[in-house]
């Protein structure tokens, strides 16, 4: 299948840990922010000049997209640490390097670390992106996760959510760059890659978790927040997505408030992971 943008395939065999990727620049334009807010159904922060930090979760994917054909790729995991809130109109630079690559159940994975800085050279975010190069390679089914024995599950101090969203193809297309043709936007392209229909980009419904934490803790917990999640199931148009979290810490002596987080659809957990926000 030819790449709609004419980019080369990811050179998996030649990738070595430490290899640089990028950099590339992009502007946090008003249009980009509005498209993101519309796709994720988030409200603006109290300061309208501040952009939602959930935008930064896509930097690793966008970095790969600038240089390689990832039109058949899927997002398998994402870690994001927010250092400062970006502002509308900022020009951001994303630089990255390969951390690891591996093959699991016939699928090729690449792990990339990224740094996002603004035009003043200030660090905005650190990220780690795990991607599957081609969806249709290897086994497309999801195997049950092995259960590990735990000494004692941590006590749940508070339950957050659920924050409920309905996924639509319109939101999926709005989240992507205008005119994008990939497994996230085009039915025929998705079917040619082995999918029954287009799937939402993982960072789209990861944004629901950022929104959930913001609604609970406000702006004081945005800077210094960290999400580390794995994407377990695809999300299709028509899916009802429930974002929720369980607070596991947050006493007087805790510097960070730890949570388990998930986004659930009818078929099971689409996202599972952890989140930490600063205790203010």
What's the gist of this structure?
This protein has helices at residues 30-40, 59-67, 169-175, 187-192, 202-217; strands spanning 20-27, 74-82, 91-104, 107-117, 123-132, 158-166, 226-231, 240-247, 256-265, 268-278.
Name its key features:
280 residues, alpha+beta, Thiol Ester Dehydrase, Chain A, 5 helices, 10 strands, 18% helix
Strand arrangement, major sheet: 1-3-4-5-2-7-10-9-8-6
The total count of strands amounts to 10
Oligomer: single chain
The CATH topology is given as Thiol Ester Dehydrase, Chain A
SSE sequence, one letter per element: EHHEEEEEHHHEEEE
Question: How would you characterize the overall build of this protein?
Answer:
Strand 8 and strand 9 form a beta hairpin. The chain has one domain (12-137, 154-278): Hotdog Thioesterase (Thiol Ester Dehydrase, Chain A, Roll), CATH 3.10.129. The chain is built from five helices and ten strands. The N and C termini lie far apart (51 Å). The longest helix is centred in the C-terminal third of the chain and has 16 residues, at 202-217. It is globular and about 55 Å long. The protein is 18% helix and 34% strand. With 280 residues, the chain is an alpha+beta fold. Residues 139-147 have low confidence and may be disordered. The chain has a ten-stranded antiparallel β-sheet. It has helices at residues 30-40, 59-67, 169-175, 187-192, 202-217; strands spanning 20-27, 74-82, 91-104, 107-117, 123-132, 158-166, 226-231, 240-247, 256-265, 268-278.
